[in-house]
Specification:
Elements (H helix, E strand, L loop, with lengths): L1 H18 L113 E2 L3 E2 L3 E3 L6 E3 L4 E7 L15 E11 L2 E12 L7 E2 L4 E5 L10 E7 L7 E2 L11 E9 L10 E6 L5 E5 L16 E7 L1 E6 L7 E6 L4 E7 L3 E3 L31
Parallel strand pairs: 12-18
Antiparallel strand pairs: 1-2, 3-10, 4-9, 5-6, 5-8, 6-7, 7-9, 7-10, 10-11, 12-15, 13-14, 13-16, 16-17, 18-19
């Protein structure tokens, strides 16, 4: 009987255990990995796409026409993703930009951010920079940035929209205008008492309207291939003093460089201190061996900087020592150091050779022939070579 009681007690205990199992340990929350955002002024304005957008997001249109007083994003933020960096080629990599404005010397004016994301790894085509000549001898008044159709384009600085639509050059909203669908921003800051403008050409889409306020990094529109082009890209200009074709300046002297990288600015002159046009110059890194080609400005409505009086600029050079050669012009060369975030200057004059002496303050500009702006101009595709 005693054994029977013990067995019953064990059976009752097992029943109680099965009805009230020990509580399971609390589940630990799973950390959601953060998505790295490139450290540049444009990336700060991008809204990352959440995994599950809120229900009201599905009701938003992809694009919405804005009134002149609105400053909200121009597209559904959930449809815009930060592009992942491309790391398949070291040559295309760019560090983050210096903060804007970047004024390392009293003669410099890096006042604008880039109109594309820093991690987009595209910048001015080195074979068709400002002052380049191609297609019926039309001189290039901006720089071309190769972009796929539909890539976001951003405002390089704050201000108000001065133009939005077709007809920037020819007027009357001409759909065949060389600039295609274009936007012009009149900035709310100037330089030496002169108004500054930036131009964004060949867009495929924009919803900006004239008079609309805009901040640096706001979406201007989407890149395209409208106007006189042979392939998709963004045509970007800086205009000083007036919103006209003949008042452009070299954008590479106005846009903030990547951190640790610098610019090379030069004068290529003949015996009479006049510009030597369309002279091919080879710039070779003495450390990496990489070669860069740059061509001096052609004759036309191009304008040099009042201080540098340049007719040659090449930006985005990693700091270090470089050798400058001018094939067919001279057998001599110049070794020059590129400093981080700075302009390195050189001069070449026939009969005198190379020099690195900086221009004196308030030096007179180089002599250039009087040229009337052509009635049309256009930018080539990103695949053309000189």
């Amino acid at each position: 009987m005693r054994h029977t009681g013990i067995i019953r007690l064990i059976f009752l205990a097992s029943l109680l255990f099965s009805c009230n199992p020990p509580s399971s340990p609390a589940l630990m929350p799973v950390a959601t990995p953060s998505i790295p955002v490139p450290e540049d002024s444009h990336a700060a304005n991008i809204i990352l796409s959440p995994t599950e957008p809120p229900p009201e997001a599905s009701k938003l249109p992809l694009t919405t026409e804005l009134k002149a007083t609105e400053t909200s994003p121009l597209v559904n933020p959930y449809s815009l993703n930060v592009r992942q960096p491309i790391t398949d080629t070291i040559a295309n990599w760019r560090p983050p930009l210096y903060p804007t404005p970047w004024i390392p010397t009293p003669h410099d004016h890096f006042l604008f951010t880039r109109p594309v994301l820093a991690d987009a790894q595209v910048w001015a085509l080195e074979d068709y920079r400002y002052g380049g000549v191609l297609f019926r001898n039309f001189v290039h008044t901006g720089i071309d940035i190769p972009l796929k159709v539909g890539s976001p384009v951003y405002a390089a600085g704050s201000g108000r929209v001065a133009w939005s639509g077709y007809g920037l050059l020819s007027g009357e909203h001409n759909p065949d205008d060389p600039y295609g669908l274009a936007v012009v921003i009149r900035h709310d800051f100037g330089y030496q008492g002169q108004t500054l403008y930036t131009v964004y050409g060949h867009l495929s889409e924009t919803h900006l309207v004239v008079g609309q306020p805009i901040q640096a990094g706001d979406l201007v529109g989407l890149s395209g291939a409208t106007g006189k082009v042979t392939g998709p890209h963004l045509h970007f200009e800086v205009r000083v003093g007036d919103n006209s074709f003949s008042r452009s300046r070299n954008p590479e002297l106005w846009v903030v460089p990547p951190q640790g990288w610098g610019l090379l600015v030069g004068q290529i002159k003949n015996f009479d201190d006049e510009w030597l046009s369309l002279i091919r110059v080879l710039v070779r890194s003495l450390e990496s061996g990489r070669q860069y080609w740059v061509v001096s400005y052609g004759e036309g409505p191009v304008n040099s900087d009042p201080y540098y009086s340049e007719n040659l600029v090449i930006g985005d050079l990693p700091a270090g020592w470089y050798r400058i050669l001018i094939p067919g012009e001279t057998s001599k060369h110049l070794d020059i150091e590129i400093f981080p975030g700075r302009v390195s200057f050189f001069r070449y004059k026939r009969g005198e050779g190379f020099s690195t002496d900086l221009p004196p303050p308030n030096s007179p500009p180089l002599k250039t022939p009087e040229v009337v702006a052509p009635s049309v101009t256009f930018s080539p595709t990103a695949t053309l070579s000189p």
